[in-house]
Q: What sequence folds into this?
């Protein structure tokens, strides 16, 4: 009982609020960015541009892992204590890296990269073939809704939003794609979250080296795959049906390949009180 005490630090609240603000700022990039590309780029070029956008989005975590690896090599109180008096090393289980340093570096970088967006024009000239008056494609085409049938002057924006949201979610193709994306990203996030810990415990690696290896081996192939997928779609000018078959084929191959992980493993470490008794 004498070893138990309640935490007196509320720093986690600042981290929670910071991540909320970061999420709010990052959210518009993907939906609005893709819509922007779809509106102002030629139809055959959109897959490549979207692939480039997602490729860069995957390279970001790669550099993040590498930055985390660098910060993990530095002691948590760097700048506040004399490092010569630190007797432990990153291989010691008591070592705590400078986890907070990555937030500062990423925050400053994000702020500087956001400045050029302030100088973008409010509107661009659409390609010549896009100037024709067209109905809304994709998710709303099956509902018979066009840009002219719902004039903003007659419908409130909030009512229009909920009506559009209902029609989008009732679209079977979109809802199926949404469920597939949910399952895919859930597995991918779990993979990235626990694989570094597995490497630390199973192979006796430091947190710094584990993060570095994950960033260098796991994320670049994903980025290359996304980019190649965009090039293939552009080259063969795939329709929705062809793109669906292509995605299914690649996902099936990835699933079969992932099954090989079940045949690769190591024996658990001998841990007193967990895998063996204290005696």
A:
């Amino acid at each position: 009982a004498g070893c138990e005490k309640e935490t007196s630090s509320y720093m986690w609240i600042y981290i929670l609020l910071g991540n909320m603000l970061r999420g709010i700022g990052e959210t518009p990039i993907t939906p609005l960015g893709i819509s922007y590309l779809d509106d102002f780029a030629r139809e055959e070029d959109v897959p490549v541009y979207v692939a480039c956008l997602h490729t860069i989005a995957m390279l970001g975590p790669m550099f993040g892992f590498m930055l985390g690896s660098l910060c993990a090599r530095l002691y948590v109180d760097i700048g506040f204590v004399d490092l010569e008096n630190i007797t432990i090393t990153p291989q010691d289980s008591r070592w705590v890296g400078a986890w907070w340093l990555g937030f500062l570096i990423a925050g400053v970088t994000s702020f500087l990269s956001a400045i050029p967006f302030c100088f973008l024009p409010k509107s661009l000239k659409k390609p010549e073939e896009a100037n024709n008056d067209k109905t809304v494609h994709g998710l709303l085409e099956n509902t018979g809704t066009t840009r002219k049938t719902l004039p903003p002057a007659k419908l409130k924006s909030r009512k229009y939003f909920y009506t559009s949201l209902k029609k989008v979610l009732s679209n079977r193709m979109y809802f199926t794609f949404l469920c597939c994306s949910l399952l895919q990203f859930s597995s991918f996030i779990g993979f990235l979250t626990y694989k570094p810990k597995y490497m630390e415990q199973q192979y006796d690696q430091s947190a710094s080296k584990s993060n570095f290896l994950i960033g260098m081996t796991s994320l670049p192939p994903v980025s290359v795959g996304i980019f190649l997928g965009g090039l293939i779609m552009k080259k063969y000018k795939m329709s929705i049906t062809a793109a669906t078959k292509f995605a299914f084929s690649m996902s099936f191959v990835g699933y079969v390949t992932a099954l090989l992980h079940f045949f690769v493993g190591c024996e658990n470490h001998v841990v007193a009180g967990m895998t063996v008794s204290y005696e």
About this structure: Residues 41-120+154-240 form one domain. The two ends are 24 Å apart (CA to CA). Residues 172-203 form the longest helix (32 residues). The chain is about 60% helix and 0% strand.
